[in-house]
Design goal:
Helix content: 25-40%
Mean pLDDT: 76
Distance between the termini: 65 Å
Low-confidence stretches: 149-154, 382-394, 419-427
Shape: elongated
Largest sheet: 6 strands, mixed
Number of helices: 11
Radius of gyration: 31 Å
Order of helices and strands: EEHEEEEEHHEEEHEHEEHHHEHEHEH
Strand order of the largest sheet: 12-13-11-14-15-16
Length: 427
């Protein structure tokens, strides 16, 4: 834009004062001309302090937003620029979806967190109904404020609780409830992921791979990967991880014990594992109604706690999948909102082509009865130390990070549902 631009400016609701600007000017240039023409607004030049001046733009529909000094003067076209006295207190109008608008008086130098505290103490004034009323009383929810007039008219943005109220673009807000995952984890414990699979297919190696990626490709391992021709992990074992944003536990389920069980018993065992009833560091066949030792273990040993996600691990070069694999999804579907099931193809460094990797993923997807998008591929740490690695193993850290993000996000949804909460001595 070039040439002269006339900007209509209003001070404290008085008459409009036209100010001439150049088309290449910015809002900062406008502010300087307002100061030069202070008398037009009935003010002295010192009354307009540019460093504390707050300008707002109002369009023909009456919507208002904050103006920033680095914006082009062209944004004022067909709009009115408004400014007023610096106030120590502002009125905030807050609503929740279809609730009534409630007025709050806020000091301009206070933070949003203090306004949220005031809102929390006066929730009954909003006359919330149904789910909103229940969520307001749920200790796992936190209030999130949203500005209804952001940098563009009519848009919304979530407001950070540390923002200063006087610096906000508007004083019209609505608030919503959001689950506080940190509070939930503190009260309910870690997210828990159960790893199923045949013996020597890489369950423990996968857990070690996760650990090493989280530790920045550390050489240290947490799970034993000893494996013979017939068996690997013997005991139900739990490993805790403190991720960047989430804390979670990986539960290593003995593959040989599951393989030897008849289908009906395997289904019952899967149910007990998902319910978190199995004692840690015990074999899956420890239970006997007539054994006093079994009862002692059941009531005294720590248990995993309810499982929030299931991962079935399968070696890419293997041709058969254990028969009980299909039972995992069947059992998982009836737990709360349904426990998500994922598959992991390991040892992909031993597969010779992308076609073979794709075929392995399709085979596992069909056996588990889950969508192919829930199948992941990784090259396990313990089997990828060769000097020359195939192209499909070079981004192992990225693959594991992406896999973890998907699995843990799904597990969070199960934890947030809350229906799986059982009072056990959880790991």
């Amino acid at each position: 834009m070039s040439g002269e631009v006339i900007v209509n400016v209003r001070y404290n609701g008085t008459n409009l004062i036209p100010i001439s600007c150049h088309g290449n000017d910015t809002v900062y240039d406008l502010a300087k001309k307002m100061k030069e023409n202070a008398a037009e607004f009935g003010l002295e030049g010192d009354a307009i302090k540019i460093n504390t001046l707050r300008l707002h733009l109002r369009n023909d529909e009456g919507k208002k937003r904050k103006l920033h000094f680095n914006e082009s003067i062209s944004v004022t076209e067909d709009c009115t620029v408004e400014f007023g006295k610096d106030e120590k207190e502002v009125r905030c109008f807050v609503s929740f979806i279809n609730s009534e608008n409630i007025e709050f008086k806020c000091e301009t130098d206070k933070r949003v967190s203090e306004l949220i505290k005031d809102i929390t103490e006066k929730l009954e004034e909003f006359k919330l109904k149904g789910n909103a009323a229940r969520e307001a009383r749920d200790p796992d929810y936190q209030i999130v404020l949203k500005s209804t007039e952001d940098s563009y008219f009519g848009e919304e943005r979530t407001i950070d609780k540390n923002e200063i109220i006087g610096n906000l673009d508007s004083t019209n807000f609505k608030f919503c409830f959001r689950r506080d995952i940190e509070k939930i984890q503190k009260r309910r414990g870690y997210l828990r992921i159960a790893f199923f699979g045949a013996p020597c297919h890489g369950k423990s190696s996968t857990i070690n791979t996760i650990y090493k990626v989280l530790q920045g490709e550390s050489e240290k391992s947490v799970a034993s990967t000893w494996c013979s021709a017939t068996s690997g992990t013997r005991l139900l074992t739990a490993y805790r991880f403190d991720g960047v944003n989430r804390k979670f536990t990986c539960v290593d389920v003995p593959g040989d014990s599951m393989r030897q069980m008849p289908i009906y018993k395997a289904k019952n065992t899967i149910t007990d594992i998902l319910d978190g009833k199995m004692p840690i560091n015990e074999t899956l066949d420890y239970w006997s109604w007539f054994s006093p030792l079994a009862w002692i273990k059941y009531y005294t040993k720590a248990r995993t706690g309810p499982i929030h996600a299931v991962v079935y691990v399968h070696k890419g070069v293997a041709t058969e999948i254990d028969g009980y694999a299909s039972q995992i999804l069947e059992v998982s579907q009836f737990k709360g909102i349904g426990i998500p099931v994922f598959g992991v193809i390991t040892h992909i460094d031993r597969l010779e082509s992308e076609e073979k990797i794709t075929k392995a993923c399709e085979t596992l997807s069909s056996a588990l009865g889950i969508d192919p998008s829930n199948i992941f591929t990784i090259a396990n740490t313990d089997h990828s130390k060769r000097k020359s690695q195939p192209e499909n193993t070079k981004n192992r850290s990225e693959d594991v990070t992406e896999m973890l993000d998907v699995i843990l996000s799904a597990a969070e949804n199960v934890m947030l549902d809350g229906k799986l909460q059982i009072k056990y001595n959880k790991c």
